[in-house]
Amino acid sequence: MMTVSIAPVLTFALICISLGMLLALIRLLRGPTAQDRVIALDMIYVSAMLLLLVQGMRFGNTLYFDIALLIALLGCVGSIAMAKFLLRGEVIE
């Protein structure tokens, strides 16, 4: 029976997620509209969360998962605030 290491798969995942984050950063800087920039920012925080999850799997440390959960919560609240600002022009009513 052959044993397969998961390390090359995690390295490939890190490369792919980093590439996606780089492309989202380009869209954030070049985006013609504010909506494009908000979506790019959402993709960046999701990619950062995924990077932390993959690193947590790689090192076997659960602290990475807690930090990824915190990024997900703050990113969701930030996305809602940005969407509300773009629709109404104010965040707090």
Spell out the key features of this protein.
single chain, about 90 residues, mainly alpha, Helix Hairpins
Quantity of strands, as a count: 0
Which CATH class is shown? Answer: Mainly Alpha
Q: What percentage of the residues does DSSP assign to strands (E)? A: under 5%
Distance between the termini: 64 Å
Mean pLDDT: 89
Ranges where pLDDT stays below 50 over 5 or more residues in a row are none
Can you tell me the CATH architecture? Orthogonal Bundle
Q: Note the overall shape.
A: elongated
Series of H and E elements: HHH
Compute the number of helices.
Answer: 3
Biggest β-sheet strands, sense, barrel = none
CATH topology: Helix Hairpins
Helix coverage percent of residues? over 70%
Number of domains: 1
Class derived from helix and strand content: mainly alpha
Ordered list of secondary-structure elements with their pairings:
Blueprint: H1 7-30, H2 34-59, H3 63-88
